[in-house]
Amino acid sequence: MNMEITEIWDKTLVSIKNSINSPVGYNVHIKASVPVSLINSVFTISVPTSINKNIIEFRYRDLIEASLEKVTGDKLSIKIVVNDEDEGEKEENKKTDVFNNSEISLYAVNPRYTFENFVVGSSNSVAYEAAKRSAESPGQLDNPLFIYGNSGLGKTHLLHAVGNKIKENYPDANIICVPCERFTNEFIVAIREKTTDKFRSKYRSADVLLVDDVQFLEHKEAVQEEFFHTFNELFSLGKQIVMTSDRRPTELKTLTTRMKSRFGQGFTIDISLPNYETRIAILQNKALAHNVNIDEDILGYIADNIRSSIRELEGALLNLISMSEIKDCEITMDFTKKTLESVISNNDAKISVPSIIKKVALYYNISEKDITGKIKTKEIALPRQVAMYLCRKLLNMNDTSISKHFEKDRTTVKHNIEKIETEINVNESLNSDVTYIMRDLEEM
Q1: What is the edge-to-edge ordering of all strands in the sheet holding 175-179?
Q2: Exposed, middle or buried by CB within 10 Å (0-12, 13-18, 19+), for 388?
Q3: b/e burial code for range 366-382 (CB count within 10 A of at least 16 → b)
C-alpha cells in the first residue's frame, strides 16, 4: 500500500505544480508534504510544521483534492497531520490492529531526510560520518549506532538518512523506523489484545531497526525487557540498529545496567549546537530548497539570534517565507525583525552566558563574581571551568568569545574546557553535576 500511495502522491504533485500560480507556495508548503495513508477515501498527508498545515487548509485544499481526483479517478478528501502525529489518528490506531498493512507507512523512513540535504558542520560531522558508514555497510560498522543530543539538532534527520540510503542500496531490505513511544504503545496494545507473537515477529524480522528517542524506555520495565530481547536477536544476526536519545546511555538512569551496556557496545556519538557558520549554511540550504532568495544580512540576523536548535532556526525561516507570501511583500530586514520579533525575544530569554554563570554559581553555592573573578582555589576553579564548558556546549562559542566573559586569555579557556571534556567521561560525579545544570538551563 505504501508504494501505491507514494505513486499517487508523486503524480498528484506533478499535477499541482502544473496548475498552481505560486511557485513559493508549492515549494514551501505542498512539496514538503509526504503521503501517510489512504483509508476509506481519506488521503492523509504529513507536513513538517503547523504553518504548512494551516496554509494548505486555507489556500490549497481544493486544488490538492481536485488533483487527487484527476490522478485516481476517485473523489478523495485530504487529511493533514503534522509530522505524522495527530491525536485522532493515535486513538484510531489504538483501536485497530497495529499490523494492518494500510498503516505500514507509519514505519517507513521519511524521504525528506537524506544525507545529501543534511548540513554538515563541526558540531555534527562525526555523527554524520558514522551514520554514513552504518548506511553503506549495514550491520558491519558502528553497530549499534547511538546518536544523542538536545532536541532539534538533527538526530532524527540522520536516523532517517541511514534508512533512505540503505533502502537505495538494498531495495528489498526490511527497514523499520519507529519512535520509541510508538514501540511502547504497540507493545501495550499487543499485551492487551494477546498479539505479542505478531509484535515480536514484526520487529525481529527487521533487517534494519531505527528507533528514535529511546529515552522513552525509562521507567518502563516490561517494555525494556521486550526491547532488550529484540535488540539481542537482531544484533546476533548482524542486523543494523540505530538509536537516538536526548542523553548518552550512561545518563539514562532508570535503564537496566544490561540495557546501557548493549546501547554502548557499538559507537556512541553526540550532536551539539551548530556554530554560526553552520547555522548560516542551514538557512542557505533551506532557502535554496524553497527557491527563495534572501539577503545574506537577513540570514545572518536570524543565525545570530536563534541558536538553540536547528528546528527553531528552520521554523523561523519558514515562518518568514510564509508571512511574505501571505502579505505578498518582499523579505526585507525590517520585515524580518517585525515578523520574528516574538520568536527572537522568546529565544533571548533562554540560555545565555549570564544565565549559565548564574546557574553554575547557584549550584556550587558561590557568587557569580567568583566565577568571573581572579580567585584560583579548587572550590572556585572547577565551577569556572564548568561554566566555560557549558558556554561551548550549549552556545557553541569559540575560545576567544568565552575569554571575554571570564576575563581569561583564550589559551586558558581552551585548556579549562578540554580538562572538563576529559574529566566528564571518567568522573561520574562531575558528569552528574554538569547534566543537572544543563537540564536546569534547558527548562528555563
Answers
A1: 175-179, 208-212, 240-245, 145-148, 267-270
A2: buried
A3: beeebbbeeeeeeebeb
Average pLDDT taken over every residue of the chain: 83
Please name the helix (run of DSSP H) or strand (run of DSSP E) that holds residue 192, with its range, or none. Answer: helix 180-192
Alpha carbon distance 370, 377 (integer Å):
10
CA distance 256 to 240: 22
- pLDDT score recorded for residue 229: 92
How does DSSP classify residue 120? P
How far is 404 from 82, CA to CA, in rounded Å?
Answer: 43
Q: What is the pLDDT of residues 81-128, one digit of tens each?
A: 887 444 344 444 433 333 333 333 456 788 888 999 898 888 889 999
Q: How far apart are CA 241 and CA 186, in angstroms?
A: 19
Task: Tell me the average pLDDT across 193-200.
Answer: 92
- Cell matching residue 398: 569559540
Interval 214-255: pLDDT, tens: 888 888 888 889 999 999 999 999 999 999 998 888 877 777
What type of residue is 398? N
- Given a contact cutoff of 8 angstroms between Cβ atoms, the answer to whether 196 and 99 are in contact is no
Give the pLDDT score at 111.
Answer: 83
Q: What is the DSSP string of 222-239?
A: HHHHHHHHHHHHHHHTT-
Residues constituting the chain: 444
Comparing C-alpha atoms, which of 98, 101, 112, 76 is closest to residue 3? 101
List strands edge to edge, sheet with 42-47. Answer: 34-39, 42-47, 77-82
- The secondary structure element, H or E, covering residue 64 is helix 61-72
